[in-house]
Amino acid sequence: LLRNLLNRHPSLAICGETRFYGYVYKRRRAFGDLRDLKNRRRLVEQYLSTERIGRLGLDLERLGDRLLRDADSYRALFTCILECYAESNGKPRLGEKTPHHALFTETLSDWYPGAKIIHLLRDPRDTVASLKRMPWAPNAILENAGIWLVFNRAARRSRHRPGYLPVHYESLVTQPEKEPYSSEMLLQDRQGAETYSPLGTVITQRLGKWREELTTGEIALTEWAAGDLMQDLGYERVAASPSVLALARGVSFSVFDAVHRQIEQFPCIWYRWMQPTKIAKEEFWRYRRLWQKAPTTSGLRYWNQYVK
């Protein structure tokens, strides 16, 4: 939602998820110094072979040539991808929206001192209810509540930065004009405010759906896992603390679900630890069941590539 709103600005192009942190930056020791053309070529070939990068709709051959020429550091590689996306949309300013990048906002802030970090805050119960519907998400309530907690704690580590900008999802949906993401704050671009193209009526149907989609026990587990942070962010608890038995059941199911997913994705785990530079193959083994159950055009292309 926020990405779509910001993309309506005539000067701002928000790139889709690049998974740069998980696919590339965390593996920088495996890929090595990108000033070495051999290392750079290996990384570019692997990264551009992923389904995630294929989704961006860029000319991959042209992007690959540019990365081989200019991406002599990890910062330069990330910047090149975002610049190519912005240029393909004819816009001068750029951004990116991978949720996992909350885990390295401090690095991003050091790389781009004048950048804005927009931290989209959402009720943890709505987040858990949403994740329950996602085929790629864990099945356990405590795991999904833990995802909310980890990502929000990580993003808040950058709240001392001048560019840190918290935005509440609920206010963004119901009263977007009151949220502090004006063009003056984001772009220092007053001309943009005059030509800004509104997205239209924002759907509010999903707000508070946790009241219908989560049981009382699931709400209690979510609020317990979210801890004091949810209240610090303005979300009040409504359920009593879960019993020791309920917690034991929740933890047990979380462990079972995590082990089951690890077994199911064993080839993915093997590539991650034993051949961390094989990004595309790891991605395939991570999402192959999802691509089988809910095939997409890009997913089928990568499925056929590896099955054949």
Number of strands: 4
**How would you classify the helix and strand content by structural class?**
mainly alpha
Number of helices: 19
What is the rounded distance between the termini?
A: 37 Å
What is the 3D shape?
A: globular
The CATH homologous superfamily name of the domain at 98-176 and 190-264 equals: P-loop containing nucleotide triphosphate hydrolases
Strand order of the largest sheet: 1-2
Rg from Cα: 21 Å
What is the CATH architecture assignment of the domain at 98-176 and 190-264? 3-Layer(aba) Sandwich
Q: How would you classify the quaternary structure? A: single chain
Ranges with pLDDT <50 over ≥5 residues?
Answer: 188-200
- The fraction of residues in strands falls at 5-15%
Mean pLDDT: 89
CATH domain class of the domain at 98-176 and 190-264: Alpha Beta
CATH topology of the domain at 98-176 and 190-264: Rossmann fold
Largest sheet: 2 strands, parallel
Helix content: 55-70%
Order of helices and strands: HEHHHHHHEHEHHEHHHHHHHHH
Write the layout of secondary structure elements.
Layout: H1 2-7, E1 12-15, H2 20-23, H3 28-31, H4 37-47, H5 51-54, H6 60-70, H7 74-88, E2 93-96, H8 105-111, E3 117-121, H9 124-132, H10 141-156, E4 164-168, H11 169-174, H12 183-186, H13 190-195, H14 210-213, H15 216-232, H16 244-264, H17 266-274, H18 279-293, H19 297-307
Helix pairs in contact: 6-7, 9-10, 10-15, 17-18, 18-19
